[in-house]
Design goal:
Helix content: 25-40%
Mean pLDDT: 94
Number of helices: 12
Distance between the termini: 62 Å
Number of strands: 15
């Protein structure tokens, strides 16, 4: 008998996390708290809903959303039925935003109500979109005439899949665009296999972070890198596979970030220097114990002054490097043993 040709699919990362920690918690701001098991069931409903909308393998589903539990569901649910998750950067210039959505040929657009004015402005210029799905945090759905469905209602009325289907691991899973600093934004895409391999290699690297703290199943994770930016550096896939408690802050607001850090006892995050600067500069942090918080900095150089300010607050901070084209993690800085005795200043 030939060996089983095991396919590296994102759904296996999800089912591993659910099997390992079915009752583990996923939190969204101060609004939602549910288990991995409940999240998995919602992913299956999302898969059924997408198929009912006519989404077929290879079709693009664009998403404009803050960091949320819903985005995490879409990380798995959209590629899980063979479609392509297009993570859209709402900070792009309007012309670049139109270009990326049109170039990707998005078939469905899922967007948070905060971005409704933005979507309204570009709708006429992206004729490939045939369905608009609204995301809202409010109990009363906003009245937007051209919206075809609201996310929660869509899931509630969907027939859930019994499981996510199997297909070739080289199937395209995600697509995003660079920020266009050297001309028009450039498309970057990854297959299911590439994302799974990035997750596994990232796990080995983060688990072996040594004197930088390391990451394991006991950590509490809160991303501070937008989920539209190269899958939040791919870390939500890893945290889900490990069955780690996950906390999603939505729109980045200093008071909410600090509140979640302390209330949920967050121990691991990653962000660009400006986000860390925003937090360490908040007056309230001087009164808080941040000694268990580990932060990976990327996207720009970690200034020495910021590193020292974070260290004085008890934060363990270290730097990483990558590119959109590399999924993105390439390296994480580790002090060699002989460096540990160096003066921090």
């Amino acid at each position: 008998m030939p060996a089983f040709d095991y396919q590296l699919l994102l759904k296996h990362l999800l089912t591993q996390g659910v099997a390992w920690a079915p009752d583990q918690t996923i939190v969204y701001r101060d609004q939602v708290r549910y288990t991995y098991t409940a999240m998995y069931q919602r992913v299956l409903r999302l898969g059924g809903a997408l198929q009912a909308l006519g989404v077929k393998p290879g079709m693009r589903v664009g998403v404009i959303e803050w960091d949320s539990h819903r985005y995490l569901e879409m990380y798995f649910g959209i590629p899980g039925v063979g479609a392509v998750l297009h993570t859209i950067n709402p900070r792009l210039a309007p012309e670049d935003l139109v270009y990326t959505v049109a170039h990707a040929e998005d078939d469905v657009l899922v967007f948070h109500e905060d971005f409704a004015p933005l979507v309204e402005r570009i709708r006429a210029r992206v004729p490939t979109i045939r369905k608009y799905i609204l995301l809202t945090d409010k109990p009363d759905k906003p009245d937007i005439k051209w919206v075809d469905a609201e996310y929660e209602e869509l899931l509630a009325g969907a027939q859930p899949l019994s499981e996510l289907p199997d297909f070739d691991e080289n199937t395209l899973a995600t697509q995003s665009y660079t920020t266009g600093t050297t001309g028009q934004p450039k498309g970057v895409y990854f297959t299911q296999r590439q994302l799974v391999l990035h997750t596994l290699s990232g796990g080995v690297t983060l688990a072996g972070s040594g004197n930088s703290g390391g990451v394991d199943k006991h950590d509490v994770y809160m991303p501070l890198t937008p989920m539209f930016h190269v899958h939040a550096w791919g870390v939500p896939y890893l945290m889900t596979m490990m069955g780690v408690k996950q906390v999603y802050p939505g729109k980045y607001e200093p008071e909410m970030l600090v509140k979640l850090l302390m209330r949920e006892q967050v121990t691991f995050s990653h962000c660009v220097p400006t986000i860390l600067q925003m937090i360490v500069s908040a007056p309230v942090v001087q009164k808080l114990d941040l000694s268990k918080w580990k932060v990976v900095i990327g996207g720009a150089r970690l200034p020495k002054g910021l590193a020292l300010a974070a260290t004085k607050l008890g934060i363990t901070v270290w730097a990483g490097y990558g590119m959109s084209e590399t999924c993105p993690i390439l390296t994480l800085a580790h002090l060699k043993p002989y460096m540990e005795a160096w003066d921090a200043d």
